[in-house]
Amino acid sequence: MSEMQANSPRREQQAGVALILLTLMLMSVLLPMVALAIDLTMLYVVKSKLQGAVDGAVLAAGRSISGAVSLSAQATRMNTVAHQFLNANLPLNYWGVTSAPTIAEGTCANINNNLSAGNGGCILWQPPDSREIFVTVTASVTVPLLFARTIKDASGHFSTTSAVGAAGQAARRWVRLVLVLDRSNSMNLPCSPTCPIDALKDAVSNSDPRYGFVVNFDESRDQMGLVIFGGSALVAYPPRNYNLPDSGTGPDQHFKTGTPNIVDQVGSYLAAGSATGMAEALILAYKELTKTPQPLYYNVIVLFTDGMPSSFTASYNGNPAVSLYPGDTASTGSANVVKNAGCANWNTPLNPIIGWMTQTASFGNVNNAIGIFPLMKNSPYPPGSVPLASPTPTQLATDVNGWLSNPDRDYLDSYGHYWPVQTNSQGCQFRADPTWTSLSNADLSSFPTEDLYGNKTNTIDYRNSLLYHNANVNLNMNSVNNAYQIGLASWNTTFNAGKRIRGDTNLLPTIYCIGYHGKEDVDKALLKRLANTNKDFADWAHDAYGQYLSSDYDPNSTTGMYYDAGPGSIGYAFQQVQSELLRLSH
Amino acid sequence: MSKTNRTESGVATIEFALTSLLWVPLLLGTLVYGAELIRAMQAVQVARDVSNLYAGGMTFSTSPNLPNDATNRALIARLGKELNLQTSGGSGLIILTTIKFISQRECDTLTSSGVTCTNLAKWVVAQRSTIGDTSLMTSSRFTTDPMPAADFDDGGNVVSATITNAGVTYTYPVYLTDNALKLKSTFNLLTIATDGSGYPLVDANKLPVGYGAGTSAYLVEASFRSTPFPPFRNNAGIYVVTLF
User: Fold this and answer.
1) Rounded CA gap, A295 and A299, in Å?
2) Half-sphere exposure of B27 (CA within 13 A, CB side)
3) Which of A66, A81, A551 sits opposite B210 (nearest CB)?
């Protein structure tokens, strides 16, 4: 009893101690730990979200890059776009965030862009001697604290908020581009609301960046070239020696302000006429890209056309016997297809007989006169090969501007006389009479199996063509005087040209195509194949212009894009291409 | 002695019970809340990664003829493995939508065609892909689903339509005209400035003010199922949206 009485006060004193101790421990240890864990996790969640917002801002700002104006002017826009996407991705009240993210401007001095801080001056920059332009966004946001505000920070103060930061960067490769433009006769009509050729000239050369294509690229960074094609094709920029087709540097950086330049060549000189020799144009464009090759650039060919291939350039008597395709050792060239009967002296001496052949019957499955026409006077493969006519056709175009301004001069002189390849001294005529009304197959036994650049004419690829879809008649290599057959052979060369160009694993050229629906049908399926697009697959049910199925897409080749253009929308199609080219590669 | 023992017996239990009223919910809440925070962070990370790939040009269709797309879908499933994201089924869903703002500049392509540019000044869908369990969200928060299947090719891209008027053929993407492809008014993440005629507003350098009309933006919605644990967590799941 006495023990009990003696112990009782102590026991009474001990009663509730555990509760007190636990409460104290909760207050002093557990709760602060939980509070810190919650606050820190919250900060981490916000930081993770902010990082995503910065990534989105960087990419969106990068997609808005234009080469039309100075870096500082663009940086102002980048700043606006970056803020738009930051705010879209990190809305107010996200985990208690009460203010919009801010973009830091303090690191400008370290990035060597010659811009000043403020208005996004540090967002867009470009290191010296680089082939890339960078967009960098460093943003921060203030997050209110829930529990950690009860703890003093390192400076001994209570803080109710904490700053969370994130940074992101993306880069865009500079662009090395060759424009390939169709100036065939069908580009003249219909002129509603504007003649297609004029709309094309405006879309390419307009000085307003909202409407012009070339102006949106920057001469200090990007490089550009120009190939124009009718029945034959010609490198219209940069200037080069046309007797030396492999001369020159390829696309350069004077395409807007040089003499000459692309804006002038297209805007002032380009006129419509002649046929559609698409394969030669593509190969010439590719040859330009291979001159002083720049694998670090984004190598691009942009093809505009309003029709289907209707002509191709070839060597008809097997000379030269090898392909003029860059770096190609597989091609053996085409064998001689000149009939001895029609050209008794065709190989004495063995002069190259080179020119472009076409038809005049709108691809009808009929025999009509064809011609083999010379390339531009004094040009190009090999020097002096064509024209071989006598008397010398002095009225044929002899310089680039003359060729651009007088499109029919690739087969007409200034008096309207046809000037086919002809070797009077050798007995070859390659056409029957000046009116194209009779056959010329007396001189050729068949189509050459390759064009001048090694692109096959005799493959079965043509079965994907709109022509074959409409007529369902197989290719006959011996029907050299048949308009439809020339169309199939030309289609083959074009398709194979695109396939070979995209097969360059060093430059990785990407092809973008614009198809204009005007006077003539455009083979959308061919253009999609050339671009190797992974979008806009068609089916017969809703698309009468060609079939391009997802199974036709080659995932192992570079992927381009195809764009439709119609009356009034050529400029918009070019704007879409430009937008795609200038987006970031990261 | 026995009386005292009887008096004291159970005190610790009572104290434990009393204190547990405080710390058990605290502990459980911390665990549930912590787990939810971790899942939220994972969801944000997945959405961010997917958005980066999507905006960079990667595609995620179910077309059997696009072998890269199947590989890309599998990649996304691996990124969301911790959240049981699978290419189909599973506990997560990713909705990828490419969107465009249609200004008068885009509608000009229909000039003289006789076709009305219904979606002028609207955000529209240009491409759509989904990855995961489509029953998780039957509709995007920003589109009226299901959209007409005929509007899309097997790559998920909006198709073009063709019309001939006065002998001239016009081809145009159907997102210019199909009301079903416009985004709901709930999409207010991004504003495009246009002038009084509906053209993109430009600055003194003739650059668009801010993000340009007609340029694509990439919308990714990620949704993941949560196990309910009332009262700490209801079955709301996790939803993240990003715009790249």
Assistant:
1) 7
2) 7
3) A81
B206 torsion bin: left (phi>0), alpha (psi -120 to 50), beta (else): left
Which member of A18, A542, A572 has the closest CB to residue B159?
A: A542
Q: What is the pLDDT of residue B212?
A: 86
Which of A535, A530, A490 lies closest to A514, judged by CA?
A530
Cβ-Cβ contacts under 8 Å, A84 against chain B: 190-191, 210-211
Contacts of B113 in chain A (CB under 8 A): 566
CB atoms within 10 A of CB A421: 26
Q: How far is B133 from chain A (nearest CA, A)?
A: 24
CB A248 within 8 A of CB A225: no
Residue ranges of domains in chain A: 24-173, 175-310+493-581
Residues in contact with A561: Cβ distance below 8 Å, sequence separation at least 6, in sequence order: A512, A513, A531, A533, A535, A576, A577, A580
- Could you read off the pLDDT of B130-161 as tens digits, one per residue? 999 999 988 999 999 999 999 998 889 999 88
CB atoms within 10 A of CB B27: 13
Q: Please, is B176 exposed, middle or buried when counting C-beta atoms within 10 Å of its C-beta (0-12, 13-18, 19+)?
A: buried
Which of A180, A496, A457, A503 is CA-nearest to residue A314?
A457
- pTM over 0.90? The answer is no
- Identify any residues that bridge with A304 across adjacent strands, giving them in sequence order: A181, A514
Degrees to nearest 5, angle at CA B56 with B54 and B57: 70
CA–CA dist A524, A74 (Å, integer): 36
Beta-carbon separation of B217 and A60 below 8 A: yes
Evaluate whether the domain defined by A175-310+493-581 bears CATH number 1.20.120.80: no
Q: Report d(CA A241, CA A291) in Å as an integer.
A: 14
Give the residue extent of every domain in chain B. Answer: 2-243
Q: In what order do the strands lie in the sheet with B92-101?
A: B123-132, B92-101, B217-224, B238-243
Cross-strand pairs, A152:
A158
Identify the three-state secondary structure at position B97. Answer: strand
Q: Which residues pair with B224 in a beta bridge?
A: B92, B238
Q: What residue has token string 């899309």?
A: B152
Residue A414 or residue A511, greater confidence: A511
CA distances (Å), origin B120, targets A246, A435, B86: 49, 52, 37
